[in-house]
Amino acid sequence: MARASRQWSKLNRSRDQMARASRQWSKLNRSRDKMARVSRQWSKRNRSLDQMARASREWKRHDSGASGTDQEIEWLKRHGSGASGTDHQIK
User: Fold this and answer.
1) pLDDT tens-digit profile of 42-83?
2) Range(s) of the domain holding residue 29
3) Where is this region: Disordered (predicted)?
4) What are the start-end ranges of the H helices in 1-91?
């Protein structure tokens, strides 16, 4: 009887250890899933930031097409535009 009792308690201990290990694994998996979710959110956020930056660059390029880029304006200031007048008139 005593031996059977010891075997049962041994069995229960190993069952408890397995349950504990299972809980640790599920905890680990939850944290891994959480990290993956956070990572996906960041990459989504970064994609939208990249899109905004790209749109901003496009807008600036189109906008400056009408009025000239800073470099073109500087060149005109230095060299004069010919059509619109001298250096002094541009400045």
Assistant:
1) 999 999 999 999 988 888 877 665 555 677 777 777 776 555
2) 2-90
3) 1-91
4) 2-67, 70-79, 87-90
